[in-house]
């Protein structure tokens, strides 16, 4: 089966969801005109990233009567949508979240599990942690979503793989960090490196969309890309500029790659469970718990 993906590599206006919504709707329309089945937006695409005290003002709930989500749900009648936003739950906790919308319904919401608090990051001061990593069914097969720091840790992609995800959707607002002799920033090089690795190890498709632009002194580098189950780059957006990257993937490649590389077939999940139980049961000598 063929699937046409659109990666919306955008700049956002900090703290102005309505303006960002208008950009989303315009790009959704453009992607639909180009035959896309699914469009992906970056982390916090509806709000901007360095929100700090603005968090409560821009929070929404992914429901049909929400003024931000109502038009997006209507647009999802034409193509599926992954969008980034601040979610407020019933007990008034705030999460960095991504919602998957399809045919007028909210199919799944992922809350960011890992909130970085090192270097220039301070997310843990303003947001609550998500506590679930789950794949979900779509009309294109089983999918998993992760947000930025989530896929800098090996466990969330691994859990999605075990939960049946064949298409991984990664969203980020990744600031540029690290200079070297490579023409790319260090953060751009590292993200490409791990995405190639995940695609190869899990013999799955990876679609990563990253924002661009400047915000409160941070530079977001773009470079959104799609990877096939052998770790090859199918398509990539430019660095440091807005773009709508539209590309087609052949989901039948899962069959061809996994026949040749039966990594999923041979995965020993009972062994992993047993060893994790042993490691977590130890009281000393493991600072990674």
Distance between the termini: 41 Å
β-sheet strand percentage = 25-35%
Order of helices and strands: EHEHHEEEEEHEHEEEEEEHHH
Strand order of the largest sheet: 5-4-3-2-1-14
SS field, number of helical segments:
8
Structural class, by secondary structure, is: alpha/beta
**Shape descriptor:** globular
- Cα gyration radius (Å): 19 Å
Quaternary organisation of the protein chains:
single chain
What percent of residues adopt helix (DSSP H or I)?
Answer: 25-40%
Nearest-integer average pLDDT = 94
Largest beta-sheet details? 6 strands, mixed
The tally of strands reads 14
Detail the poorly predicted runs: none
What's a concise summary of this model?
This protein has helices at 17-33, 55-58, 69-75, 155-162, 186-201, 253-260, 263-266, 269-281; strands at 2-9, 38-40, 80-88, 94-102, 105-111, 136-138, 141-147, 167-172, 205-210, 212-215, 218-221, 225-227, 233-236, 243-250. The protein is an alpha/beta fold.
Search tags:
globular, six-stranded mixed beta sheet, 8 helices, 289 residues, 28% strand, 27% helix, alpha/beta
Describe this structure as you would to a colleague:
This protein is α/β, with parallel strands linked by helices and 289 residues long. The chain is 27% helix and 28% strand. The chain has 8 helices and 14 strands. The strands form 3 sheets. The chain has a 6-stranded mixed β-sheet with strand order 5-4-3-2-1-14. A 6-stranded mixed β-sheet has the order 6-7-8-9-12-13, covered by helices on one side. It has a two-stranded antiparallel sheet with strand order 10-11. The protein is globular. The N and C termini lie far apart (41 Å). 41% of the residues are buried.
């Amino acid at each position: 089966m063929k699937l046409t993906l659109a990666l919306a590599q955008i700049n956002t206006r900090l703290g102005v969801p309505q303006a960002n919504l208008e950009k989303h709707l315009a790009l959704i329309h453009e992607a639909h005109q180009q035959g896309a089945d699914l469009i992906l937006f970056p982390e916090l695409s509806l709000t901007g990233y360095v929100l700090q005290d603005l968090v409560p003002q821009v929070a929404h709930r992914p429901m049909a009567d929400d003024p931000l989500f109502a038009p997006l749900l209507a647009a999802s009648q034409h193509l599926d949508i992954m969008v980034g936003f601040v979610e407020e739950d019933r007990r008034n906790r705030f999460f960095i979240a991504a919602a998957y919308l399809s045919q007028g319904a909210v199919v799944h919401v992922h809350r960011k599990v890992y909130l970085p608090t090192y270097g220039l990051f301070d997310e843990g001061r303003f947001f609550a942690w998500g506590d679930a990593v789950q794949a979900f069914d779509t009309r294109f097969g089983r999918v998993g979503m992760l947000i930025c720091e989530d896929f800098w840790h090996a466990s969330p992609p691994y859990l999605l793989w075990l939960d049946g995800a064949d298409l991984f959707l990664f969203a980020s607002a990744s600031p540029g960090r690290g200079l070297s002799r490579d023409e790319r920033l260090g953060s751009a090089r590292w993200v490409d490196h791990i995405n190639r690795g995940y695609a190869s190890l899990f013999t799955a498709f990876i679609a990563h969309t990253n924002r661009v632009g400047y915000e409160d002194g941070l530079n977001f580098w773009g470079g959104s890309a799609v990877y096939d189950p052998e770790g090859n780059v199918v398509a990539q957006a430019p660095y440091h500029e807005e773009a709508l990257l539209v590309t087609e993937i052949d989901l039948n490649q899962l069959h061809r790659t996994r026949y040749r590389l039966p990594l999923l077939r041979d995965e020993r999940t009972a062994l992993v469970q047993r060893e994790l139980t042993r490691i977590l049961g130890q009281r000393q000598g493991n600072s990674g718990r």
